[in-house]
Structure formats: structure tokens, C-alpha cells
Specification:
- This protein has about 500 residues and is an alpha+beta fold.
- The chain has 3 domains: about 160 residues, FAD/NAD(P)-binding domain (3-Layer(bba) Sandwich); about 150 residues, no CATH class; about 70 residues, Alpha-Beta Plaits.
- The protein has 15 helices and 21 strands.
- The protein binds flavin-adenine dinucleotide (FAD).
- Flavin-adenine dinucleotide binds next to α1, β2, β13 and α9.
């Protein structure tokens, strides 16, 4: 049997381009050549700092040493996301990673909590999550385990530009060819597939498969193939962000903060060398100048650069894989970073690509299956984000009033009703957000179940109180020995192996 060969050309060298290049360099068979074209003149989007725990699987698969990664990207740990003011001013809750409570018998914790809340026996959810307790007390350990709470999952904050550079070194060391050039178009094969991309100085870079990582412009997937875009602005009308880094303060929190503002929300992401900040807003309700003024008035320390505006349209490409082009990253679609999902969408597109890596032939059935799954993933995340906005109680504020009046996607309306009626949450297996994630946001946004599984009623009140107390104690015991976040980052970076050890 002859060895399969394929020339894969990656267009763009942002986070998406270099994550794709690094993964292909690590896993593609020997006959595959990987070329990445990027333009220093055009540059990258330059934001994107918060992730979810799945990123660790990506780094692990590439044998990336955690210390080397964290040191190179000036990263920090992330135990969850705090939502300040999303229900109403002064209110705060957390979508913390990891378990909240534990099941009793075979029944999820939420039923016992719902009954406990209704009968005045249970405390707010924060008391039953080791992640949240650690986050709010500024503690972090990479190997935390506690009685009855198996692990404290975590993600990272990092400088995405430095991550791309880190992965570039990784990929180039494993044979990826980088071409610095600005692309001006593409040429087609007889069957309509892309045959080559053309540089503005008339060079042609040929390939059999192209990964479009060119960012919002979608150089191949849209400008060349006219794939089309499904616009979700009617559900998620925020269409612009202003971003600015500021000097770090002593408050080195191991979590992302999202604070509701009059027509959007503000992120705060602490890194080792700076805090990343941004204001996501809707221009129907507030001007860019006003949004910038709000952002600049709400920084922890002095700004380190001028604020920068980034316009966007929420939605997804109608086909993420079209002909011999796969869109990865911002070229595939955009969902605002409320739940830190964009880098994850890059990761899952790459994982899916590796699973169905084309040989000589691209099978239409495989492409259709890929697109179906990618579309479902975007839609699940979209629904989760809409929930945060819709379930607000910020009455009298025009933007938030409009969000409360949204006509919800059927899939989300059903999920909310299931929770409100009988405390059920049933995400399918391939959904990114687990029932615990949904539970925290549904409950955090003030939705209260009218009833719960009757099995939760079998336990006498004293037994339920004891159970809830033991869960709370387990969270306290898990967090007690954990060092402070700042010390944990220093220890992990200090133990870094050389970057290219893998
Ligand atoms: C406001 C905002 C906040 C975000 N926050 C987060 C977050 O907290 N967490 C998260 O996971 N994600 C976040 N993201 C998303 C994240 O920034 C992106 O998913 C990630 O950076 C990937 O970008 P990219 O590589 O697709 O595109 P880009 O970074 O735009 O890179 C595009 C690449 O294509 C190249 N290119 C373009 N045109 C040409 C051409 N003609 N010729 C040659 N090269 C070309 C460019 O030079 C560049 O290298 C955020 C995005 C925005 C807009």
C-alpha cells in the first residue's frame, strides 16, 4: 500500500492557524506536508484570553508542559466565571467549573438543593462548590482533591498572541513551513475546489486541502467560496467590543469576571503581566465613545494601551467545511466571549478534523456529518449565552428590557421549561456545557424550579440538612490546604520543563 500524501495549506497565523498547525504537526501522517501562510502586515485580532477546561486536553495531547506553557503565555489559572449584576445590580453568581454538590443515591444534587431551598434548608449554590469557594478566596491548586469532591477542574487565562507564538515554535520545530505573505486570492481546479492560494506578489501556494484561519474576513470560505453566514444578531444583538489591557493589581483572581453594563457587559481577565479588559456592547443602545468611557472608568489600574474597537456579527458560517476548505476560528463564526468558547471551538474543529482527516478523497458524507456536528455545537453554545441575557431582572434598562422580551430558540425555551417545571436538565452527550453548567446559570439567573424529583422528598428534613452540611464541609476541606493562586502560578512556572521537551 502506498503511503497517503496530502499538502495542507493553513491560511492565517492567529490562535486558530497555529493551533491547527501544531496539532497537524503532531498527528498528521508522514506523507502530509503542512504549510502556513500569514501576513504580518495584516496581523491578528489580538484578543482572546479566557478558556474552558477542555484546553488542557489539547495541550496534553500535544505533550505540552504546563509550566512551560504558563510561563511562555504569562498565563494564570481559571476556576470559573463570575457574573456580576447579570440578574440585577449587586447580585453575583458563578459558573464554576467542576461539580456542585454531589449526587445522593442516583439522583443529581440539584433536586435536593431545589427542595432544600424551597424549605429553607439549603444555602446558595456557592456553598456547595469547591471551585467557587477556591475562586472567591483566591486559592488554586493543580492537584486538589477533597472528600466527596473528586477534583477541582480548571482552565487558563493566557495571552493568546503569546500562545500562538509558543505553538509556532512547536509547529516549526516539527516541520511546519511558514510563509510570510499577503494573500490576494485563490485559483480553482476543474471541479471547483481550491487549487492554490495566490500571494500579492504573484506566487501560488498549491494544496489539496485548505484550512481557512484568516479571521473574520474568511478569505477562502467566504470571499472565494461565498459559503454564506447565518446571522444570529436578533438573539444576540451585541455587535462590538472595545478592549484595553491595564496594569495588574494585587487582586490576582483565579477566575474571569463578567460585569453587566447598561447595554452589554465588561470582561476582566487577570494575567501575570496585565489584566485584559473589554466591553461588549450593542450599538443600537450605546455609542462607541460611551462604551469606551464606561470601560476606562472601570479598570483596576492604569491602561497600558489605547482602547481598540472590534466590530462583529454573531452567527456562524452556513457550512464550516465547504469543498476542500475547512474554516477554523473566527472565519467559521463568532459567539461573544461570555462563556470563553471561541478558542474551544477552534480546538473542537481541529479534533474533529483529525478524526476524519481526509486521505486522497474528500467524502461528501463525511463533510455533511462534520458540518452537522459543528452547527449543533455552535447552536448549543448560542442557547447557553442567550440564557444569561434573557433571564435578567434589570427592569427599566432598554437593552435589558429588550433581552427579556426575546423570542427564544425553541431548543432553549424547552430547556428552561424543563428546569422550571420539574428541575430537569438533559443536555445530550455531545453538548459542551454539562448539566452542572446549565444548573448554575439557570439558578444563578434566578430561575426557580416549581417541583423536583419526588425521590428527593423521601429523605426526612434532618437527613437532608445533614447531607447538605456534609457537602458544604467537603468543599471547605478541599479548599483549606490550597495555596494562594499567585503562589500556585509561581510554583508551576518555576517547575517548567524546557519548551520543546516533547
Ligand atoms: C472581542 C473579542 C474577545 C474575545 N475573547 C475571547 C476569549 O476570552 N476566549 C476565547 O476563547 N476567545 C475569545 N475571542 C476569540 C479569539 O480571539 C479568537 O477565536 C482567536 O483569537 C482566533 O482568531 P483567529 O486565529 O481565527 O483570527 P485572527 O487572530 O484574526 O488571525 C487571522 C490570521 O489570518 C491572517 N490573514 C488574514 N488575511 C490574510 C491575507 N490576506 N493574507 C495572509 N494572511 C492573512 C492574519 O495575518 C492572521 O494571522 C475573542 C474575540 C473577540 C473579537
Amino acid at each position: 500500500m502506498t503511503e497517503p500524501t496530502m499538502r495542507i495549506v493553513i491560511v492565517g497565523g492567529g490562535t486558530a492557524g497555529w493551533m491547527t498547525a501544531a496539532a497537524l504537526a503532531r498527528f498528521a501522517p508522514p506523507g502530509y506536508t503542512i504549510t502556513l501562510v500569514e501576513s504580518d502586515a495584516i496581523g491578528t485580532v489580538g484578543v482572546g484570553e479566557a478558556t474552558i477546561p477542555a484546553i488542557r486536553q489539547f495541550n496534553d495531547a500535544l505533550d505540552i508542559d504546563e509550566g512551560a506553557f504558563l510561563a511562555a503565555t504569562k498565563g494564570s489559572f481559571k476556576l470559573g466565571i463570575e457574573f456580576q449584576g447579570w440578574l440585577q445590580d449587586g447580585h453575583s453568581y458563578m459558573h464554576a467549573f467542576g461539580p456542585v454538590g454531589r449526587q445522593l443515591g442516583l439522583l443529581p444534587f440539584r433536586h435536593f438543593w431545589a427542595r432544600g431551598r424551597a424549605q429553607g434548608l439549603a444555602k446558595p449554590l456557592a456553598h456547595y462548590s469547591a471551585n467557587e469557594l477556591a475562586a472567591r478566596t483566591g486559592r488554586m491548586a493543580t492537584d486538589a482533591k477533597g472528600p466527596g469532591i473528586p477534583e477541582v477542574p480548571y482552565a487558563y487565562h493566557f495571552d493568546a498572541g503569546l500562545y500562538a507564538q509558543f505553538l509556532r515554535r512547536y509547529a516549526e520545530a516539527r516541520g511546519v513551513i511558514r510563509i510570510e505573505a499577503t494573500l490576494a486570492g485563490a485559483s480553482r481546479a476543474d471541479n471547483g475546489d481550491i487549487a492554490a492560494v495566490q500571494t500579492d506578489d504573484c506566487r501560488a501556494i498549491e494544496g489539496e486541502f485548505f484550512v481557512d484561519c484568516s479571521g473574520f474576513r474568511g478569505l477562502l470560505i467566504e470571499q472565494e467560496l461565498h459559503t454564506g453566514y447565518e446571522d444570529w444578531s436578533h438573539w444576540l444583538p451585541c455587535n462590538r467590543a472595545v478592549a484595553v489591557p491595564c496594569e495588574p493589581t494585587g487582586n490576582f483572581t483565579p477566575y474571569t469576571r463578567s460585569t453587566a453594563r447598561s447595554a452589554g457587559w465588561q470582561w476582566r481577565i487577570p494575567l501575570q503581566h496585565r489584566i485584559g479588559n473589554g466591553h461588549v456592547f450593542c450599538t443600537d443602545f450605546i455609542s462607541e465613545d460611551e462604551a469606551t468611557a464606561i470601560l476606562m472608568a472601570n479598570l483596576d489600574g492604569p491602561a497600558l494601551a489605547d482602547p481598540r474597537a472590534i466590530p462583529f456579527v454573531t452567527g456562524r458560517r452556513k457550512q464550516i467545511w465547504n469543498r476542500n476548505v475547512l474554516a477554523v476560528g473566527l472565519s467559521s463564526g463568532f459567539l461573544e466571549p461570555l462563556e470563553s468558547t471561541s478558542i474551544h471551538l477552534i480546538q473542537s474543529a481541529i479534533t474533529r478534523l483529525l478524526t476524519v482527516l481526509p486521505g486522497q478523497q474528500i467524502e461528501p458524507a463525511v463533510v455533511a456529518g462534520f458540518n452537522r456536528r459543528a452547527a449543533a455545537e455552535f447552536e448549543h453554545i448560542r442557547d447557553f449565552i442567550i440564557l444569561h441575557y434573557w433571564a435578567n431582572q434589570r427592569e427599566g434598562q432598554p437593552f435589558w428590557d429588550r433581552m427579556r422580551a426575546l423570542e427564544l430558540p425553541e431548543s432553549l425555551a424547552q430547556r428552561i421549561e424543563e428546569f422550571r417545571s420539574v428541575c430537569q436538565i438533559q443536555p445530550s452527550q455531545d453538548e459542551l456545557f454539562t448539566e452542572v453548567a446549565w444548573f448554575q446559570v439557570l439558578a444563578g439567573q434566578g430561575l426557580t424550579p416549581r417541583s423536583w424529583n419526588p425521590i428527593a422528598d423521601r429523605y426526612p428534613a434532618e437527613e437532608l440538612t445533614r447531607f447538605l452540611g456534609s457537602v458544604e464541609q467537603a468543599a471547605i476541606e478541599t479548599v483549606r490546604p490550597m495555596p494562594m493562586h499567585i503562589d500556585c502560578v509561581a510554583a508551576v512556572c518555576g517547575a517548567a520543563k524546557t519548551e520543546m521537551a516533547a
